[in-house]
Specification:
The chain is α+β, with helices and mostly antiparallel strands. The chain has helices at about 15-20, 45-50, 100-115, 135, 170-180, 245-260, 275-280; strands at about 1-5, 25-30, 35-40, 55-60, 65-75, 80-95, 120-125, 145-160, 165-170, 185-190, 200-205, 210-215, 225, 235-240, 265-270, 285-300, 305. The chain contains seven helices and 17 strands. Strands 1, 4, 5, 6, 7, 8, 9, 10, 11, 12, 14, 15, 16 and 17 form a 14-stranded mixed beta sheet that branches. Strands 2-3-13 form a three-stranded antiparallel beta sheet, with no helix packed on it. Helix 6 (about 245-260) links the parallel strand 14 (about 235-240) and strand 15. The chain starts with a strand and ends in a 6-residue tail after the last strand.
């Protein structure tokens, strides 16, 4: 077995091997739908859009046995407190490699990189229904134990509003607006959307200034496909923030309208689980599929809301 620590473009041999490897994994979206993910031949751009990124890969005979990605992020906690953290994501193991040395080797390599940095704070997003949780494979062999930090609800919205409750603004105006709508809890900023979005991001605010969000996509770095092979074409609402559930619903309805105009039949967004019930109650006739996810991490405070952009999961 060979361990590769990748920070640049993949070799011509490794890229197709990773593409084959990804096709083995599917994920639930509601009770009746499953999908798979493709990061494309380059693989790393999706992660680089979030920050300095690397991926550890274990390969044997030109077949991938497992991988684990790490992204250096800047996390914010409520009223402006900011610090460095590591976003650990894309952990996948081939079925035949489970129970072998593959997972410990991936974790040890990632731990080595983290310990060489200025921060040991880490977090990860785990979709509901995942068989093995971080609590199952941390807290031993010198790896700090990850604990449950929070819960989020991932929404896939179909249908739309009228398009007249919100309007696009410049990126700088959006930053000023979002600063007035602080997201209480943890959130990560600093994305380079040009690396992942094929459409020009649309910075959207309500007419009353009580909600905002950015419509983008991830198709440059990540695509979703139904089990039958058709692309699960969706836009994403990033930087979603709202003063009230009704304001958030107005923005989400119009964002879905604009996403449909841009060729996306559905829109993904995520909110803390504590905010989901009130928001869903205000969405009216929109068809919404809800998928739960959990945040696990180390050296971060539990008990806070988490604002995770679906374009980064």
């Amino acid at each position: 077995m060979t361990l590769h620590h990748l920070t640049a473009d993949l070799s011509p041999d490794l890229a197709p091997a990773l593409a084959r490897f990804e096709r083995e994994f599917t994920y639930p979206l509601g009770p009746d739908t499953r999908f798979r993910i493709s990061h494309g031949q380059s693989y790393l751009p999706f992660f680089r859009a979030m920050g300095q990124a690397d991926i550890s890969v274990i390969e044997q005979g030109q077949e991938i046995l497992g991988c684990l990605a790490r992204v250096a992020r800047r996390l914010c906690l409520s009223a402006g407190e900011a610090f460095d953290a590591h976003y650990l994501c894309d952990l996948k193991l081939r079925a035949s490699a489970r129970g072998s040395t593959v997972l410990p080797r991936l974790i040890r390599e990632t731990k080595r990189v983290i310990e060489a940095s200025a921060s040991t704070r880490c977090y990860s997003v785990v979709m509901g229904g995942t068989g093995k949780l971080p609590t199952d494979y941390t807290g031993r062999l010198g790896v700090p134990r990850f604990e449950l930090l929070g819960e989020i609800a991932i929404l896939r919205v179909e249908g739309s509003g009228t398009g007249d409750a919100c309007h696009p603004v410049s990126a700088s105006s959006f930053e000023s607006m979002s600063a007035k709508l602080p997201r209480e809890g943890y959130s990560a900023w600093g994305a380079d959307r040009a690396l992942r979005s094929m459409i020009e991001p649309i910075h959207l605010v309500t007419s009353q200034g009580d909600a905002c969000g950015i419509i983008e996509d991830t198709r440059k770095g990540k695509q979703l496909f139904r089990e039958g092979g058709a692309e699960l074409l969706s836009a994403h609402l990033s930087g979603f923030s709202f003063a009230s559930a009704s304001a958030g619903a107005r923005l989400l309805q119009d964002a879905s309208f604009l996403a449909r105009q841009a060729g996306f039949p559905a829109l993904f967004a995520a909110v803390p689980a504590s905010r989901a019930g009130d928001l869903l109650a205000c969405l009216g006739a929109l068809r919404v599929t809800v998928a739960p996810a959990s945040i696990y991490g180390h050296a971060l405070e539990p008990g806070h809301d988490w604002w995770i952009d679906t374009a980064e999961i």
